[in-house]
Amino acid sequence: DGGITQSPKYLFRKEGQNVTLSCEQNLNHDAMYWYRQDPGQGLRLIYYSQIVNDFQKGDIAEGYSVSREKKESFPLTVTSAQKNPTAFYLCASSQGARQPQHFGDGTRLSIL
Amino acid sequence: RKEVEQDPGPFNVPEGATVAFNCTYSNSASQSFFWYRQDCRKEPKLLMSVYSSGNEDGRFTAQLNRASQYISLLIRDSKLSDSATYLCAVNLSNDYKLSFGAGTTVTVRA
Question: How many CB pairs under 8 A join A and B?
Fold first, then answer.
């Protein structure tokens, strides 16, 4: 089945630690995205990538980093500079601009 | 003013009722619009795209009002399983980014 796989489902971060969230898609989509969702709020865009080896900052990129070395993979690193990382992180992909985005089932990150 | 706004609700309706709600957007040049459904602690799932002439998918009807810059979602013959948060998404800049509303919560009661 085609889809987007995020791992892990739950992640705990210690103070001062960097953690990496995995996102893999087999939909052959060019574009991939990372969002953060806080309770009762909408999705906020962290980073997005239109094509391999290229990515752009979204609205809340500070404290996060990404890479796009392969079409199917778009990992997100939450660095120690992100002081409030507790949230639900969602990865998405789309065929292109102005197309609907399809989501993975998310990673819940908490601070220990 | 937020770029994409939704009435948070909640809309509490009995089974079989019709419920409708809107989503306003800030950029009159926006071209792409979508409705997503999000269940508690789950990922958003695409419900339907919204086309200029309006479109229907079973009990769900989506409409676009460009003059007043809003989209709407109507659910007919509500089922208990329709209870969820409905997110609108707008491609404000006609690029790759979607802007999401904070969601409208619908609760269908027996």
Answer: 51
Question: Which residues in chain A are contacts of B42 at CB distance < 8 A?
Answer: 105-106
Cα B90 to Cα A35, B71, B78: the distances in Å are 15, 9, 25
One pLDDT digit (tens) per residue for chain A, 112 residues = 679 999 999 999 888 899 999 999 999 999 999 999 998 788 999 999 999 999 999 999 999 999 999 999 999 999 998 889 999 999 999 998 889 999 999 999 998 8
Alpha-carbon distance of A67 to B92, in angstroms, equals 25
Task: Look at the block and give the residue holding tokens 């009435």.
Answer: B7
Characterize B31-57 residue by residue with b for buried, 16 or more Cβ atoms within 10 angstroms of its Cβ, and e for exposed. ebbbbbbbeeeebbeebbebeeeeeee
Would you tell me which residues 35-94 of chain B have a C-beta closer than 8 angstroms to some C-beta of chain A? 41-46, 49, 87, 89, 91, 94
Reduced to 3 states (helix: H, G, I; strand: E, B; else coil), residue A4 is strand
What backbone torsions phi and psi does residue B64 show, to the nearest 5 degrees?
-120, 130
The chain A residue lying nearest B87, using CA atoms, is: A42
The model's pLDDT over B57-79, given as tens digits with 9 standing for 90+, comes to 999 999 999 999 999 999 999 99
